[in-house]
Amino acid sequence: MSNTTDSFIDEVTEEVRRDRLFRILRRYGWIGILAVLLLVGGAALTEWRRASERAAAQAAGDAIYAVLRQDDPAARAEGLAGLGVAGPGAAPVMMLQAANLAEAGETARAAEVYAALAADTGHPRVWRDLAALKRVLLLGRSLTPAERLAALAPLTEPGAPFRVLAQEQEAYARIDAGETEAARALLDALMADREASLGLRLRAAQMMVALGEDGAG
User: Fold this and answer.
1) How many CB atoms within 10 Å of residue 91?
2) To 5 degrees, how large is the angle CA 203–CA 169–CA 191?
């Protein structure tokens, strides 16, 4: 008799549990369904965005390639300017535009593009510093030594991406300014700088010899 009673109680207890579970599911089950839908929808949206970004990048790359296939550098520069590339791809397009303007002999316009890129803090520092350095190299001695030194100063800071190349140009600017000892100190530091390439160290050594000969003469 006791076993029969216990079985009956267990069955009743199980039924009560099932009933409670069904009531909970009916009341709150929509939350689980909504969570699943949100997860699936979020994954689908993320994949769609990635696919859209890949398609946009490919389209931009195809457009740039088509422009660069033209023979005339001036036409290439105008074509690049007309692409209207924005975001991360804008800086390299501006660099290409300036390089083609320089090749076409439009030095002033090329320098303007380099200057615009160098001043735009919306771009990564590596592109801004490269543009500033390229502008100094492009304009050369059409800039006064003081102007070159001012433009190069931020590029020679510790940790700057093109520090050693900027220091080389600083040494040349100081030579033109008559600051020979300061130039020698820069060149001597470059010859011992592990970040400097072999070619740069050789150029620094050659300039030191030239300065020594000039001093002796």
Assistant:
1) 20
2) 40
